[in-house]
Amino acid sequence: MRISDTEVKKALSGFTAPEVDVQDENLKVVLGVETDEDASERDAQLVKDLTKQVLDMPDREEMVASLKAKIEAGEYNPSSHDIVDTMIRRAIADRMR
């Protein structure tokens, strides 16, 4: 016997989730019991973490100069894995624009 989407919606229409005292932050997000304040704090921490990661990255000019020097010296030999990885990353980045 097949149960239609309509029948499932009817069955679930009177259902309410029980109140849960959730301590684990990830579980709060999954269960949807996260408050706006919790979400704001989590977002603020995420921004701080990402900002730190970006600031810790080497400067692009230094990276480009290093690659140019390797290419000119004939020492730049990326593996096929590196090339494919870069191609895939570029394709994903292009789709996000």
What key phrases describe this protein's structure?
single chain; 5 helices
Overall geometric form:
elongated
| Radius of gyration, whole Å | 25 Å
C-alpha termini separation? 46 Å
Could you estimate the helical fraction of the residues in percent? 55-70%
Low-confidence stretches at least 5 residues in length (pLDDT < 50)? none
The mean pLDDT is 80
What kind of sheet is the major sheet? none
Number of E strands: 0
- Specify the structural class: mainly alpha
Q: What are the secondary-structure elements, in order, as H or E?
A: HHHHH
The number of helical runs is 5
User: Beta-sheet strand percentage?
Assistant: under 5%
Account of the 3D structure:
This protein has five helices and no strands. It is mainly alpha-helical and 97 residues long. The chain has a domain at 35-97. The longest helix has 21 residues, at 36-56.
